[in-house]
Amino acid sequence: MKNIFLKITIVLLLLTNLVLASSAPIDPISVDKIYSMENKTPYLSKQEEKQALYVKDKTVKKEKKFNDENIKVNYSPEKIISQSSRRINAIYPVDDETLSNVYPGYRGPNQLVIYTKEFGRTTGTNEFGKEAVVVDNIVVALTGANSKIPRDGYVISGHGSAKKWISDNLKIGTKIEITERTIKAYTTIDSYRFFAKSKIEAVEDVLVSTKSDYNNRDDKYIYYYLKKAKQQYKKSLKDNSDNSLACAKESIESATLAYRYTLPYLENELKGTWIRPTEKSLSEIQKTLDKIKATGINNVFLETYFHGRTIFPSLVMKEYGFEEQNPDFVGFDPLSIWVLEGHKRGIKIHTWFESFYVGNKSPELYPKSILAQKPEWMNRTKQKADYEGYVSHPQEHNGYFLDPANPEVSEFLLKLIDEITTRYKVDGVNIDYARYPNIAKENYNNQWGYTKFAREEFMQTYEIDPIEIEPDTSMWNNWCEYRRDKVTNYIQKVSRLLKRKNVLFSAVIFPDYRISLKTKYQDWTRWLDEKYLQAVTPLILTGDDELAKSMLEEIKRKTPQAINIYPGLFAGFIESDPEDLLRQIHIVRKLKLDGVVLFDWAHLNQDYLNVLKTSVFKSQIY
Predict the structure, then answer these.
(1) CA distances from 193 to 32, 255, 570, 614 (A)
(2) Which among 181, 207, 392, 457 would be 20 to 30 A from 609, CA to CA?
(3) Distance (Å) of CA 62 to CA 226, 229, 448
(4) What is the spatial distance between Cα 448 and Cα 468, in angstroms, rounded to a whole number?
């Protein structure tokens, strides 16, 4: 007990001492790092300055480095530009007693949580929040979920109202103080200088790392805006006046523009997005597709079967007595128009297909829903194996799931996929929810798959009801393998169907293979080894670059060369900075993967679209 108390006391003292935020100016950076790469120095003529164009001239001398000694600084006291505070709900792992909640990362609704390095490698949170990485009392990165916890800092994580507080008050460079159970965030001119410097360094790093990758890249805009960013940053160091603050802000803006040009357009790269359609007329679909085309997206993953409904009038759904079509589209066949109009614009259309997930609307209120008509198809937890009502998953949108073990379920889904690929000239099928419902933590009563069919079939082979199996036994391993096999068998059947039809087969997977096996019974490495798939779209549910890179490296190691990898990037959904999306695309390209799919179109606001259109998704004509 003494050791435990001592450990908790030490961690609390460390967190309390985080109040010593430095107000010293950021060290200035070199202004000639990039220019010296090609032994050329850029300059701007008056005419070019007006036109925002850049030319290189060997006759101009290199700019000299600047440093603190070259700048006369007379700082006035640093004023706080903005500040805000909020109560901390939990500090992990200090608050062991709060680990009883079932949410990913143990972060509950509307909670603000601090994760220290003792908690583990990452926060383990899901994509429905926002996080800030703090080192030396300064926010150094903003991410969305499952952030890597720094060894010399911590992560601030928020959901709901706490997420909004983070979004409204924390930026790169924001200073943080923690006193007992209160967090205070404040911004000064040094915060803007820190942000500007980090932006400039990001441009330089990409230029250095891609020097041999893009031989045909036109760098004039990069160097123009980079030089301007450095000039304004240097001016911002003069003092703490409003004019210096304006210079720091201009430096940030210029570095941001420079970064947008660092990743050029590549022709042979899948540039995709997932879309849940809302358009209800030909003109609305045409307008959306025109916008997609203008952005440079060349593949659309159209949600065709979701929440147990189809967007088209389905003969299969009608045959089973289910709702023939999603009521939002009755009297209209959007799938036929998406395919026809997409192909006119050179855009490929993939069917995005939710396999075992049937939405969160109570079957009791929808008599023609799948589970209202076929309640025996419903997946169940161990705790509610014999419960007479419907069983939903509280951490998956309170949604309902079908039983992968039941052959009638797989037969129905295969008929639906067959109907889609027969009636419509889709370019691919992207299978989603090919898994069991997620297990948020080690609670065996919350395990899924305890349906009447599965229990009886398992008993025929092993002569024991799965409900009676104790965890961490050889029989438990058999029960886990049984469930994984059921999902794999479904994937195998879909693969056979689509190969006969010559339709591209891709699947949504979760990057961490071990967690996927244990908590979702999704054995995607087996799918790859057996060559059931032609492509995977792994969900990169984080804004943490280092974590995203490690995820993709593992997937690449486990994926045969003939199978394409199209990472699903969630920057828009988790409301990351638009340049964060470019950084992840940069990681994808450095790993020589085959493209990206963005989640999702509804969350790609104009800022993201502008970033994509600047260069990375659109070929520029100079």
Answers:
(1) 19, 12, 28, 25
(2) 207
(3) 15, 17, 66
(4) 14
C-alpha atoms less than 13 angstroms from C-alpha of 259 in its C-beta half-sphere: 28
Segments in 106-241 forming alpha helices (H): 161-169, 189-209, 220-236
Going by C-alpha positions, the residue among 73, 25, 60 that lies closest to residue 227 is 60
What is the value of pTM for the model shown?
Answer: 0.85
For residue 37, give both structure tokens: 């790469």
Mean pLDDT of 118-144: 93
Q: Which residue is listed with tokens 């679209």?
A: 609
Peptide bond into 68 cis (omega under 30): no
Question: Phi and psi of 14, rounded to 5°?
Answer: -60, -45
| pLDDT tens readout for residues 506-552 | 999 999 999 999 999 999 999 999 999 999 999 999 888 989 999 99
Per residue, what are the HEC states of 16-45?
HHHHCCCCCCCCCCCCCCCHHHCCCEEECC
Strand, helix or coil for residue 275: strand
Mean pLDDT of 482-509: 98
100's tokens: 């009883």
The sign of the torsion formed by the CA atoms of 142, 143, 149, 150 equals negative
Q: Tell me: the pLDDT tens digits for 30-71?
A: 323 322 222 233 333 333 333 433 333 332 233 333 333 333
| Coil, strand or helix at 412 | helix
Paired tokens of 288:
């959306």
Q: Residue 440 has what pLDDT?
A: 62
Q: Residue 7 pLDDT > 50, yes or no?
A: no
Cβ atoms of 202 and 583 within 8 Å: the answer is yes
